[in-house]
Amino acid sequence: MAFRDVLNIEVAAGNGGDGSMSFHRAKYMEKGGPDGGHGGKGGDIILRATQSVESLERLVGKRKFKAPNGGYGEGRLRQGADGEDVFIDVPVGTTAFDEDSGKVIADLVAVGQEKVIARGGAGGRGNSTFTSSTRQAPRFAELGVPGQKRRVRLELRLIADVGLVGYPNAGKSSLLAALSRANPAIADYPFTTLSPILGVVQRENADERFTMADIPGIIEGASEGKGLGLEFLRHISRTRLLIYVLDVTRDPVEELRQLQAELRTYDATLLENVALIALNKIELVDAELASMVEDDLVHSGLPVLKVSAREGHGLPELKETLFQMLPEFELWAERNALELEPDQVIEAPLSITFRIDPAAKGVGIINDGQPERVWEVHGGGFQEKLVRFSRYMEEAAEYLGNLFKRQGLYNALKRAGAREGDTVEIGTFRFEYFDEDEQDRG
Length: 442
Hints:
The chain has helices at residues 172-179, 229-236, 252-266, 287-298, 315-325, 329-336, 382-387, 393-406, 409-416, 436-441; strands at residues 6-12, 45-50, 64-66, 86-91, 94-98, 104-107, 114-118, 149-156, 162-165, 197-202, 209-214, 241-247, 274-280, 304-306, 351-357, 372-378, 423-426, 429-432. It is an alpha/beta fold. The strands form 4 sheets. The protein has a 6-stranded mixed β-sheet with strand order 10-11-9-12-13-14, sandwiched between helices. The protein is elongated, with a radius of gyration of 33 Å. Mg(2+) binds at residues 173, 193.
């Protein structure tokens, strides 16, 4: 199965279960009290980073994930069961984007790291919750909240200590094979490597190692998506140290300039990474020419090591230099790992707009032939609260009226200019406005 580093999926968390509207039933008890239990929470959709998945190919063929809903509440104060969470295992280095907003919603950089990308809805409260001194037998309950739904783009960005940067056929695969236990395809033509390959480099006579990535060769215009373009640059973004692999038989100085220009265009911070130059294929030129090219490259400010991946010249020195130059992993992880807070539902600020509707003709409300004054309420979380009682709207009217009064809706309408008998519209819900002060004076 082919290596896959980008995948679009759809996720839907579970809906919260509805609260129960129930009354206690027992022998010799004609009218028992309310005993409706709460609904269960819907299951979350969770990304989990694992080392056992080497690419996103494991997800191919399954593009939609749905978590179970929470169970309904029942009588005798029995709460509905919570829906089980659904885990999606992805490789370490996976970043998740919300397709609609473009926002990063997860960035998994360590084995076992988890991130909720779609939250299950809260369960509704049973009618036992809504009793009061004046409401002994509430005949309404709260409905569960729908779970989050998202279109998500997953991108795998390999986490490697060392990344090999170079044009096609510069000898990156040969260098990886010579330094590590990796076994990449090697041939004398461009784009032999079509997928990122990881190898482990072991220090001689020591229990120290690092990972090295051979990533598909870059070409001019890669930062604009040409050739393997962004597929290459995406994977290089996490490396701690870059090796510019340059072919001594071509024009190494110009190739270095072009490589750095592509990296700068894609992400200028990549040029801040620790880096060195591996001047490869020195077995193909005489020593004097190799030294002249080395002198020209020194002006870049980067260390230059002359190597031959094919014959092994300079590889022990290169390996030891890499171990000495690699930044401490802990410092790098602290700088790059994103600590993403759980998604918070933020109520939109309250706004009230006024409109005049023409008098209804034949159907609907006839307001003595006069245009209807309508106040549209947006934000403040009022529509969300109404939806949760939509099945019991008539029975819950008093409770909602008192709730909205405490939350300042009526005062806001009055300040906006609402008059007795005006219509208030909240989403699909409409009701008549009345001024309590006017009622008290009457």
